[in-house]
Each structure stands twice: as structure tokens, then as C-alpha cells.
Amino acid sequence: MPSSAIAVFETHLPLPNRRQGKVRDVYELPDRGPDAPAALLIVASDRLSAFDVVMKTPVPGKGRLLTEMSRRWFDFIRDQGLAETHVLSFEATDLPAYGLREDEIGNLSGRVCIGRRCEVVPVECVVRGYLDGSGWKEYQQTRTVCGVPLPEGLQRGSRLPEPIFTPATKAELGEHDENIDFERACDIAGRKTMEQLRDTSLAIYSAAHEYAAQRGVILADTKFEFGYPLGSDGQRSGELPIVVDDVLTPDTSRYRPADTWKPGGEQVSYDKQFVRDYLQTLTDSGRWDKTAGPDGLGPELPDEVVEGTLQRYREALDRLFG
Predict the structure, then answer these.
(1) Tens digit of pLDDT for each residue in 73-119?
(2) HEC profile for 159-194?
(3) What does residue 297 show for φ and ψ, rounded to 5 degrees?
(4) At 1, is the pLDDT very low, low, confident or very high (cuts 50, 70, 90)?
(5) Which among 45, 56, 101, 240 has most CB atoms closer than 10 A?
């Protein structure tokens, strides 16, 4: 039996306003009174996306690994006083209080986050401490990344003199995120908001990078999402955006073992780069054009890519949190 047969590809719960992202299924939870925060249920599936396309083949258990790592990092952000977050609970056992029956909850344990309902800021907050990915491609042409000038002589994988904030547009499912400069981000979300999100993103990245480095792991780059918490009336209940979605997982970050890091080429990674590299071979041979097919999905992944991805995610979690 292929491993994908036991994976959770998607969920369909008896809750309103279901939205399906690249990896997560999101539902609105019933309001529990005027004094209770408006809440969402976020379910981490085993879907995997690369190049902003969801693959046909899920990675069984990936959703639980991502949820556990995100939970650990949310605790870290809270304990370090770095930012407020949307997290209310990571326990599926809290869902009956919102009207779900045990049989409806099923195998959601370890996959769920109950979070505050928020108005999401439509800019992804990317922080890069090392040069790779789309940043490396841009640097080779312009010696900049998202309008941030960088010194000559950097190589692929080089550590930057200091972390840089490189925002991106938040694309709809099936579309590609677009790197933008800080001024464009200010046009979209407002200067005051973006200055605060830049400072918060850089502070979280720097603290997480130091924590990971002490455990022999390099956090090369990551992206955060923020939102304004909403009240039961649907209006903003706070003036400051808080951290939403997931944080510092291999789906949103590049992790590398420190003992193999060497600037000048492709790096060993604990993240989706393993999948991207396989898909790039399909593109280079003309078998895939990095767009979704008629079913809205990307190509099938062979078992060795599925297992290799899961192994890298597990190793990242083990090395970071034991």
C-alpha cells in the first residue's frame, strides 16, 4: 500500500466558511459569547506545495510534524516576549466546547490549532539571513534582494552581513508570491504597520536563529504572517497585528545542518528544497512547467521523495526540540 493512502489530504468538517490553503484547511468556530475571542480552527493536512503548487502526493504525518514544530516555536515567541500570537489552543480535546462531536473530530489530534480570527495583513514578511532561492537569483542580476543592496562577492548560501527584511505579496492558491520592496509593501499595508512588522519579524528571526545555532542548525530564512484580531462582531479588537498561521516550520523556512554548510553551491537542507530539487529535474527535462494541471495539482511524487521529505522534517524537529 503506498504511504499516501494513509495520509490526510483534506478535511470536511461540519463547520462554516471552510477555506483550503496550500496546506491547511481553515474553518470558523462558533462564537462562545461576547467575552470570548472569535476563533478559527486550522487543520494541518499532509498536502505539500512547492513553487506555489500543491502536489498530487501527500506526505503522511507531515501535518502533525508541522503542528508540533509550530507549537514549540509559538511557545518560544511567547516566552521570549517577542510578539503576541493568535494561538488559543493546540488541543483537539478542546473542540467539543465548540460543538464538534468526538466522531467528527476523528484523527485531528496533533493536527489542529485553535486561533484567534484575524484580518490578515496582505503582505508576507520574509526575513533572510543567508543568500539562496529567489534572493540568490536576483542578487546575481542586480546585487540587490527586494531593493536591499548587498555587497559584491557573495555566493549562493553566503551568510549576509545582517538579516534583511524582504516582503512578498500574498498570492491566491495556485498563483505565485511576488517579491516586492519595502516601499511597495508600505503602499499595500501602510507604513506604520510595515515598520512594526519589519521590526518584529527581524527580532523573531534573530532570536530563533540564535536558538537554532546552539543546536547545530542554521535558520537561513523564514516568512511570517500577521493579522489584526477580530471581535465577535467582525471588527478589529486590537490596534496591533499579531503573529498568525504557522511559524518557523520547514514549510515556511530554510533549515540547514550547520556542520555541512559551505557557501558556494547547493546546501543540505531540512526543508522543502529536497522536493524543489526533484521538481526542478522535471522542469529541466520538459516534464513539468511549474503550473497546476487541470485538477489544480502538481505532479505525483515518487516514494523516495515522500520518505526523504518526511525524514528531513523529523530530523529538523528532533535537532531543534529533542
Answers:
(1) 999 999 999 999 999 999 999 999 999 998 889 889 999 999 999 99
(2) EEEEEEECCEECCCCCCCCCECCHHHHHHHHCHHHH
(3) -125, 165
(4) very low
(5) 45
